[in-house]
Design brief:
- The chain is mainly α and 154 residues long.
- It is built from six helices and no strands.
- It is elongated.
- The relative contact order is 0.14.
C-alpha cells in the first residue's frame, strides 16, 4: 500500500466550519438590516416633510389661534394629533401587510416566528418614536409663530 505524498490534510475546528458556512446568511442579514435602517430614515424624513409643509400652509391659522388665546402647547398638540392619525393608519396597514407576507418568509427562518407579537410591537414602537420626533420638530416651529407678524403679513 502506497501513500500519496500530494495529499494535504487540513484540520479546522467545527466552529470555524460553521462560521464559514453561515457567511452568506450573515451578509444578507446585515444588508437587510442596513436597508431597514435606510427605510426608517426615509420614512422619518417623509413624515417630517409632509408635516413641515402642512405647518407652513397653516401658518396663518396658527397665528389666528394664538392671537385668540391658544397656547403653544395646544398648537403642538394639534399638529401632533394629525401626524399621529397618519402614523396609526400606516402602522395598521403595515402590520396587516406584514402578517400576510410573513407566511412567505416563514420558510426562510429557522426557529424564529415572523408573527411574534413582541417583534411586531418593537418595530411599531420604533416607527412611532421616529415619527414622533419627525412630527414634533415642525410642530414646535408652528408653536413659535408670532401672531402679530403672521397677521400683518396677510
Amino acid at each position: 500500500m502506497a501513500v500519496n505524498p500530494e495529499l494535504a490534510l487540513t484540520f479546522r475546528p467545527l466552529s470555524g466550519q460553521i462560521d464559514a458556512s453561515l457567511t452568506q446568511e450573515r451578509v444578507l442579514a446585515q444588508l437587510a438590516g442596513f436597508f431597514g435602517v435606510v427605510a426608517l430614515v426615509l420614512a422619518g424624513l417623509g413624515l417630517y416633510g409632509v408635516t413641515s409643509y402642512a405647518v407652513n400652509r397653516r401658518r396663518t391659522e396658527f397665528g389666528v389661534r394664538m392671537a385668540l388665546g391658544a397656547t403653544p402647547g395646544s398648537v403642538v398638540a394639534l399638529v401632533l394629533a394629525r401626524a399621529c392619525i397618519l402614523v396609526l393608519l400606516g402602522l395598521v396597514i403595515g402590520a396587516t401587510a406584514s402578517m400576510w407576507a410573513s407566511k412567505f418568509v416563514a420558510l426562510l427562518l429557522y426557529g424564529v416566528d415572523p408573527r411574534q407579537p413582541s417583534t411586531v410591537a418593537c418595530a411599531a414602537g420604533l416607527l412611532a418614536a421616529v415619527a414622533g420626533v419627525a412630527a414634533w420638530l415642525p410642530a414646535r416651529r408652528g408653536a413659535r409663530i408670532d401672531p402679530a407678524v403672521t397677521l400683518r403679513s396677510e
